[in-house]
Predict the 3D structure of the following.
Amino acid sequence: MMIPAIDLIDGKVVRLYQGRYDNTTEYDFSPLTLRNQYASSGAHWLHIVDLSGAKDASKRQLTLLKQLMDASPLHIQVGGGVRSEQDVTDLLDAGAGRVVIGSLAIRQPELVQNWVRKYGGEQIVLALDVAINANGDKTLPSHGWIEQSNITLEQVLDGYINAGARHVLCTDISKDGTLSGANVRLYKELAAQYPQIQWQASGGIGKLDDIRALIGSGVAGVILGRSLLEGKFTLQEAITCWQNG
């Protein structure tokens, strides 16, 4: 499944390079127009990230998020700055099909595992984004990739699987926003090791061949951000590529 992404700062559509707020590209698209365009192009899900809220909880764009989720022609998964159960319920009540939880899932796994049990594995997406170190360890930086950690993906994932987690969005941070191709080896390893998880691949997709490279890797979905915003290919082309294998 192709999952187009819209990242938002102060109401504007943007992309970060490798998660860095000091390396931001702003695009002249209306978020609502973009949502409708992706729906008419054949998408079933839309991935929205509130980057303002991720950086500063007081700047959460809940009003805009509600507008995007209201009467949406798409299912929407949304994240960015989810720090409390109230944030989860606010987003679900506003119309989110799934709430994406990143840093908190790493820093307070027991808390987030309880939410997975309470709301169900279909309504929570874990954003477990990795920085692969010199030893090949899949470490999990937190706070919007700002803070490094020695915690590995494998160390936190088992607890979530036991809690009933079903969806994990995994970005190789070194690939994010680069259009240099996805880390296919990473996703093959993860899908083989954890086949019960619906993996979403994110980061690096720059051409249709990058999508083709992920076919057969075991991922359930591919997040498309900068490549669509910059017209590297159309969403229809990406969907056809994925369906045709």
User: Anything to note?
Assistant: The first helix runs from residue 31 to 40. The first strand starts at residue 2 and ends at 9. The chain has one domain: 2-244.
